[in-house]
Specification:
binds 2,5-anhydro-1,6-di-O-phosphono-D-glucitol; cytoplasm; binds manganese (II) ion; D-Maltodextrin-Binding Protein, domain 2; carbohydrate metabolism; metal-binding; FBPase_class-1; Fructose-1,6-Bisphosphatase, Chain A, domain 1; hydrolase; 337 residues; 8-stranded mixed beta sheet; 2 domains; alpha+beta
């Protein structure tokens, strides 16, 4: 725990340095990387908050590797994050939703690999609803080979050295973990600093909110249909019926789940036989956050973070949130396999 008694306000930079001092011998490279992401987040937040009055809304006209129409703000966020990571020579390559292959930063000595969902929930941009950025950080696997390849980056989520997100909502929040708990910061735009708001956040063990796109009901696995019916039954003891909440931006739905408990689900479906959400830059980083906060994240069978990735843009089903809620949906999925 960081000593909060002595100071009322701790900035992200101060917190990162104080935390790093707890690891003697740490050279501060990961700290620098997190500070660089914080800088890009402030720039993106400023653009998001004035999007309505600059022509940054709308489509860019291109489609990405997923066949999604790319929004101007998707590309702006991608550019800002990649250039921030390029400020210090510690990141050797970036994999981003908005780039088909690896982005080699030509920093041969760089020991970190960063996955990015530069803007998550893009469909919310034009209707002024929460969006976010998600990041996942690994150590480069084989430093021997000169040439960087996707293979360097195909590591299970358990190998993440850090992960986190920025949420551009009613305020701009940044959450991250380096494997010793989850810290939460709120951007104070009047001083342009992220201020520590919680330095060891824990997810409630049980929650009465379920979050899933019910429009896909017809193609859900049978167990999920039965689970959602269970959520809707009346039972005071287990605080049912639950409330249904769906923001349409994974980072916002998972942040609400972190704060209030419950479960977020994106299963496999007819349209997305392997699920819609991407393993490496949506599901793994948010699973690390939720597990570090005491929750669970599975793909319907095992832990999301134990999946051995085969491709940098691969998708996975995900059931993530409070431990009791995830174990309950797993019971229904197993019963109706
Ligand atoms: P992105 O905007 O990065 O492409 O991600 C969108 C994802 C995720 O944020 C959200 O949970 C999900 O798409 C919503 O999908 P549906 O519209 O199919 O519910
Ligand atoms: Mn997208
Ligand atoms: Mn996304
Ligand atoms: Mn995205």
């Amino acid at each position: 725990m960081v000593d909060q008694k002595s100071k009322s306000v701790i900035t992200l930079e101060e917190y990162i340095i104080q935390s790093q001092n707890k690891f003697p011998g740490a050279k501060g490279e990961l700290s620098q990387l997190l500070r660089d992401i914080g800088l890009a987040a402030k720039i993106i937040s400023r653009e998001v908050n004035k999007a309505g009055i600059t022509n940054i809304l709308g489509e860019d006209g291109s489609t990405n590797v997923h066949g999604e129409s790319v929004k101007k703000l998707d590309l702006f966020a991608d550019e800002q994050l990649i250039s921030a990571l390029n400020r210090s020579e510690i990141t050797c390559m970036v994999i981003s939703e908005e780039n088909d292959g690896i982005v080699d930063l030509d920093n041969d000595g760089g020991k970190y690999i960063v996955y990015l969902d530069p803007l998550d929930g893009s469909s919310n941009i034009d209707v002024n609803v929460s969006i976010g950025s998600i990041f996942s950080i690994y150590l480069r696997k084989n430093t021997s080979t000169k040439k960087l390849s996707e293979d360097d980056a195909l590591q299970p989520g358990l190998q993440q050295v850090a992960a986190g997100y920025v949420l551009y909502g009613s305020s701009t929040l940044m959450a991250y973990t380096t494997g010793v708990g989850v810290s939460l910061f709120t951007l104070d735009p009047s001083i342009g600093e992220f201020i520590l708001s919680n330095d060891d956040i824990k997810i409630p063990d049980y929650g009465s909110i379920y979050s899933v796109n019910e429009g896909n009901y017809k193609s859900w696995p049978e167990g999920l249909k039965k689970y959602v019916k269970y959520c809707q039954e009346v039972d005071d003891e287990t605080n049912r019926p639950y409330s249904a909440r769906y923001i349409g931006a994974m980072v916002a739905d998972v942040h609400r789940t972190l704060m209030k408990g419950g479960i977020f689900i994106y299963p496999d479906s007819q349209e997305y036989p392997n699920g819609k959400l991407r393993l490496m830059y949506e599901c793994n980083p948010l699973s690390m956050i939720i597990e570090q906060a005491g929750g669970m994240a599975i793909d319907g069978n095992g832990r999301v973070m134990e999946i051995t990735p085969e491709s940098i843009h691969q998708r996975t089903p995900i059931f993530i949130g409070s431990k009791q809620n995830v174990m309950k949906v797993k019971e229904f999925l197993d019963e109706h396999k």
